[in-house]
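User: Structure with NA7, tokens only please.
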Amino acid sequence: MTDQDQPQHEAIIIGAGVAGIYQMYRLQELGIDATVLEAADGPGGTWYWNRYPGARFDSESYTYGYSFSKELLDEWEWSEHFAGQPETLRYLNHVVDKFDLRRHMQFGCKVAGASFDEEGSFWTVHLEDGREITGRFLLTAIGMLSAATLPNIEGVDSFEGEAWHTYYWPHDPVELDGKRVAVIGTGATGVQVISEIADKVGELTVFQRRPNWCAPLHNAPIDQPTQAQIKASYDEIFEICRQTPGGFLHGPDPRKFRDVPEEERLTLWQKLYETPGFSKWMSNFIDVGINPEANAEYSEFIANKIRERVNDPMTAEKLIPKDHGFGTRRVPLETHYFEAYNRGNVHLIDINETPIERITPKGVQTTYQEFEFDLIIYATGFDAITGAFDRISFTGVDGVALRDQWADGPDTFLGMGTTGFPNLLMLSGPQGGSVSTNYPRGIETSVDWITDLLCYMRDHGYRRVESREDAELEWLQHVQEMYQFQLMSKVKSWFTGYNSNVEGHDTIRYQIYPGGAPRYRERLEEVASSGYEGFKLT
Ligand code: NA7
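Assistant:
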């Protein structure tokens, strides 16, 4: 091969979010030439885009930061236990500058497609502006919730007031004072927005299709003694995160629900409800997510909390999920969410009773009435995990399109590779561990593993890696098995790949790895130590 046939870069990383930043850091450290292509005009990924009011962590701040640099851990001070979006974006920019990564990042580069050159074993990335960039390896750091979806309601474009999807919230402040505002969607995002703006707008009307099991976040500022204590215990904090299934500080209670007397159960549940963060989801009895009886009882405990917090009993009942049990969908953590509905200016519309017929120039037309608004906020979520892949035209061996290959659901090996797409390595790929955990904890695992693979290939003179079909099939079977015994597998959510706004996403899709981070890491280690069995290396 002549020099002209060589790709421009050893690696191209798509995305400068949490994953892309750390991947670039690792490659720079090893002296591997790489470039990061990012559509936005700065780094941050999810934290760059989601600027809506109330956007903040549900993970403890100090479990979300990177763990790789002691110096970074020592110097960075999170101001709150659950930091808001502006602080997280500042943090990610700080990391980029501290480690001098910006010089490897190209902003304003929207990737339209990427095609694999079989002869040369490299990827050509096609940018929307017509440019092409080539790289031996293509590393996708394109996020798991980065393909925002508007509702498939007629007339969305016809509204004459201001309208935003939460993901695309503008950089300049949006005037809320005295405005008539609609929020459509009550997932984790809608719940944060509603809680934050209820006392800042004139009238707030919430259009709810399905309520979620929301529970208190209990955020608080971090005082100096606590700050010092956090810094002194980072080793311990990250070790706990390593051991828990979700990569959080919250691990399950090993006891089964029935093995504990009722009074003791209630004491634990009350304690969990009062504890900050995801404890009420993840520190419960081990069988609450798999045993319908345990789940029903815990759900009733939480339902009673909602009844206590919402003054109007009819509104309270509307806010209590009836079609799924606690924790079988993503649990939104909230700050005074339920109390928002006690305000005179906040109105809850159950769109199962009065469906939305269309968006009109003036507002929202339901089967009952037309509501007029100044601002509509679409908190309608994402084409989760595979959506970001579907929006880029990846073409692999024999001209096969990834979006066709995955039309009925993704097939991957470990969430890292997919057959027919050599040298495409996915940092937050479907069925992988990073999309199923406290994201940076999972990402550090994926990035380190992929970096080791690249070093192994370099040391052994390989230049092409592709996952094997039989390994993928086995992995899919394992992923399906992990889904099947959990109650969440029966419930429509982005965990199970349902999205009413995306054509064809109306049956189960195995999107995440529900077997827990320690089990996932074990499998990764096995594969690496066997010389990457499950991958074809040539
Ligand atoms: P989610 O959790 O997918 O929530 C989207 C919400 O929007 C949810 O309440 C949906 O109702 C509702 N929705 C979606 N489409 C429509 C239409 N067409 N009509 C009415 N209502 C609709 O997204 P989020 O942004 O809240 O959270 C995503 C993740 O980001 C979250 O899990 C965190 O990890 C961060 P549904 O429940 O489907 O009936």
